[in-house]
TrEMBL record:
Gene Ontology MF terms in the entry: iron ion binding; L-ascorbic acid binding; procollagen-proline 4-dioxygenase activity
Enzyme class per UniProt: oxidoreductase
Chain ranges of the Fe2OG dioxygenase domain: 163-286
Name of the molecule in the record: procollagen-proline 4-dioxygenase
Classification lineage: Eukaryota, Viridiplantae, Streptophyta, Embryophyta, Tracheophyta
Primary location group: endoplasmic reticulum
EC number: 1.14.11.2
Membrane topology listed for this record: Single-pass type II membrane protein
Organism of provenance: Ficus carica
InterPro entries tied to this protein: Oxoglu/Fe-dep_dioxygenase_dom, P4HA-like, Pro_4_hyd_alph, Pro_4_hyd_alph_FE2OG_OXY
Keyword Transmembrane helix included in the entry's annotation: yes
Record field: catalytic activity: L-prolyl-[collagen] + 2-oxoglutarate + O2 = trans-4-hydroxy-L-prolyl-[collagen] + succinate + CO2
Length: 291
């Protein structure tokens, strides 16, 4: 009050400018309070967790939190686990929501056909005993849900959406499997569009009661050190394995950082023993893949 009376004595102009400054300060205060209340601004808090294991120490599973947004529509915490460096493989927990998993299964269901494999001599698709699942492709950018998933894949892998093939949806019933194979091509035909397959993201759309693991029989490191070792089928224990869990995604690289092919990326789908397995695959190329 004293200040204002003093200003009034000096001049009208300074009175109005100090009122203006005061009004702006009050306004700014309310804006900040509103933003903090709405959760747009957050007060920084120190997180003092620094138990970082050594990069190549596979005896302890590395847990790297990337996006700890608790209770994202009740779909669990999102975090990334490094499971192997040879091959380079990562599990992104709760990558897809329950609704996204169900959406993909329902979209694909009416279009499922017996799976084929690529003939390395002719480059054409052929029926095979090594792959007994059924599947279908969903075109890249097909609808809003798929575009959202494809954007999330690009954000996680740092590989642009345009380098991805369409999502493949696969269904394995009891006894169905995919024998160990490489995702990279050894023929000229299949690399004409987009070049070599560089990385694969495998998304599990359902839980599987028993079997159906993704197994890497050529992985280096202690394969029995995974926390889920005792839950694996006999097939799953033949290598480094990932147990299917709805919403989880497995990323692995078929190429080493020097762009040579990585034979340790050999992988297969173990036979389903009990239950039903739905999964979705996104293959990513070195160059743009024209749809
Ligand atoms: C592999 O990991 C298991 C479980 O952590 C441990 O019991 C075993 O001794 C390890 N084996 C080697 C060769 O380090």
């Amino acid at each position: 009050m004293a200040k204002i009376r003093h200003s009034r004595l000096q001049s009208r102009k300074s009175t109005s400018s100090s009122t203006l400054i005061f009004t702006m300060l009050v306004f700014f205060f309310f804006v900040v309070v509103t933003l903090v209340t709405l959760g747009i601004l957050s007060v920084p808090s120190s997180s003092g967790d620094s138990s970082t294991p050594k990069a190549n120490d596979l005896s302890s599973i590395v847990r790297n939190s990337v996006d700890r947004n608790h209770g994202d529509e009740g779909n669990g915490e999102r975090w990334v686990e490094v499971i192997s460096w040879e091959p380079r493989a990562f599990v992104y927990h709760n990558f897809l929501t329950k609704e996204e998993c169900e959406y993909l299964v329902n979209l694909a269901k009416p279009h499922m056909k017996k799976s084929t494999v690529v003939d390395s001599e002719t480059g054409k698709s052929k029926d095979s005993r090594v792959r007994t699942s059924s599947g279908t492709f969903l075109a890249r950018g097909r609808d809003k849900v798929i575009r959202t998933i494809e954007k999330r894949i690009a954000d996680f892998t740092f590989i642009p959406v345009e380098h991805g093939e369409g999502l493949q949806i696969l269904h394995y019933e009891v006894g169905q499997k995919y024998e160990p194979h490489y995702d990279y091509f050894l023929d000229e035909f299949n690399t004409q569009n987009g070049g070599q397959r560089m990385a694969t993201l495998l998304m599990y759309l359902t839980d599987v009661e028993e079997g159906g693991e993704t197994v890497f029989p050529a992985a280096k490191g202690n394969i029995s050190s995974v926390p889920w070792w005792n839950e694996l089928s006999d097939c799953g224990k033949k290598g480094l394995s990932v147990k299917p869990k709805r919403g989880d995604a497995l990323l692995f690289w078929s190429m080493k950082p020097d762009s040579s092919l990585d034979p340790s990326s050999l992988h297969g789908g173990c036979p389903v023993i009990k239950g039903n397995k739905w999964s979705s695959t996104k293959w990513m190329r070195v160059n743009e893949y024209k749809a």
